[in-house]
Amino acid sequence: MFRRPFQGRELVEQFWFIASVTILPTALVSVPFGAVIALQVGSLTQQLGAQSFTGAASVLAVIQQASPLIVALLIAGAGGSAICADIGSRTIREEIDAMVVMGVSPIQRLVAPRVLAAMLVAVFLNGLVSVVGVLGGYFFNVIMQGGTPGAYLASFSALAHLPDLYISEFKALLFGFIAGAVAAHRGLNPRGGPKGVGDAVNQSVVIAFLLLFFVNLVLTAIYLQVVPPKGS
Fold it and tell me: Are 185 and 42 in contact (CB under 8 A)?
């Protein structure tokens, strides 16, 4: 990734391609996801008599957990499958072997720009999902459940702090790297001709999903141990 010459044009093209196939699905998924979290958390806090903490609980759940996972799943499912299919089709057509014979590194020329593009798109989409999810949660909590706007915002500002946003963006960056790297690896190693490319795409999505959930568990456990809750 850091070896010169850097493939800037390829990076821009892949960034635009991955963003174009993931922005709309991400925005559409984030609204019901934020709404479900807000409705569920709001119902639970009403049963416990802690309606004033609905905003903090729902917003923190969206920012810390839901937003990075939504972005990662869509990057792996939409962008990663496209990356795997593209590189896999090049592999079975022996374009990768031809590049190696000519002394061109397929990792530097094809893989590095795609993985970096997936990482950058994941970071930007994570911000989009956070904003849309928080607004959706606010709407459903205040309008549908009769919550108080002031209490919603006050509880969020009382319990949330900047490290919550930092860990969210770091998760998105790491998840984008995992999705892109897994897709590229499977694309470079298909088996069985054209049918193998389809199998590699399915494998890349499944493997990426499993890795993303496992890494999310590890990062969340480390974050909760290292960063103390606000006010503690």
Answer: no
Both tokens of 11, joined, read 């990076």
Phi-psi region of 103 (alpha: psi -120 to 50; beta: other; left: phi over 0): left
Residues 152, 122: Cα–Cα separation, whole Å = 28
Q: Are 126 and 172 in contact (CB under 8 A)?
A: yes
Phi and psi at 229, nearest 5°, equal -60, 150
**DSSP state for residue 182 in the 8-state scheme:** H
Task: Report d(CA 232, CA 222) in Å as an integer.
Answer: 17
Q: What gap in Å lies between CA 58 and CA 37, rounded to an integer?
A: 6
pTM: 0.85
Over the stretch 185-223, which tens digit does the pLDDT of each residue have? 998 888 877 788 888 888 898 999 999 989 988 998 888
Residues 75/125, Cβ–Cβ less than 8 Å: yes
**Euclidean distance between CA atoms 171 and 119, whole angstroms:** 10
Tens of pLDDT along 127-177?
888 888 777 777 777 777 666 777 677 767 767 777 888 888 899 999 999
With beta carbons less than 8 A apart as the criterion, state whether 91 and 83 touch: no
CA distance 21 to 24: 7
* Main-chain phi, psi angles of 49, to 5 degrees: 75, 30
Max intra-chain CA distance, the chain: 70
